[in-house]
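Subject: for your reference before the review

Hello V.,

The reviewers asked for a structural picture of the protein, and I figured it would be easier to keep everything in one thread rather than splitting it across files. Below is the amino acid sequence we used in the manuscript, unchanged from the supplementary table.
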Amino acid sequence: MTKEIAPADQLLTVRDFLRYAVSRFNSAGLAFGHGVSTALDDAAYLVLEGLKLPIDQLEPFLDARLLADERQHLAALIEARVTTRKPTPYLVKRAYVQGVPFYVDERVIVPRSFIGELLYSDVFGGDDFTVIEDLSSIETVLDLCTGSGAIAILAANVFENAEIDAVDLSPEALDVARINVDDHKLADRIELYEGDLFAPLDGKRYDLILTNPPYVDQVAMDELPPEYLHEPAMALGSGLDGLDIVRRILAEAGAHLNLGGGLLCEIGTGREILEAEYPDLDFLWLDTAESEGEVFWLSAESLGAS
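And here is what came back from the structure prediction:
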């Protein structure tokens, strides 16, 4: 009887493991969407992050021969990705938004908001179209439903004069957010609050509110691929049409905005519903490279701030 040879003993280079991972992922019918959209991108991320290599520099390392313990580590990660269906960021405990690294585990959803791309675009501080012309004018920012703290940390990078509050209902999520705030040395600028949306803020007002709240509708929640079932359900679902929490934010945001400020909110696929329900709100829909009509801007004035 022929003895089976383990993958770690047959695969020698980064290229070998990349090819093997793509084949295994495709064969297993894995789902993607936690920062990547294809089996190749997921495999490249797993291999590079698993080896602590730059995640945007695959080519220089493709033919690098790996040490025995490195091969065993990658083989175990690939096997875990296939058998547990955990998203790769959970397996390597790392996610990136706009190239910025964040610690993640199953206490938070994997950060992947379109708001990150918009913060780093001309929408804020651009020469032509922009919702905020002078970035230095933003002195207070609120990140609602902060999760891992990623949006709050990105906002701190963009708005260098701003003090930032970040709120989440989950104490476990806030534990992860604290890790990231400390890792990025922003504890003096980012304050974390546990509570339900605006409830723990005691009437505070902000120049800018950012939020990527739960917005998955019930039909989609019932059909989630296994990868998404590893994420906290409370961070995904929001009622029958996915907009229950968004409605609450719209009802309360005006009382927490300074004049001249505004609300940036990601909602997924509910644009037509919101526009029909709130005909008097002047929604400005901001598209990104991978989204259309999924993020809106509302000025403080349109939300009734005074």
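For the response letter, the relevant points are probably these. The chain has two domains: 7-86, 95-299. Strands lie at 95-97, 100-102, 140-144, 163-168, 190-194, 206-211, 257-266, 284-285, 295-299.

Happy to draft the paragraph if you're swamped.

O.
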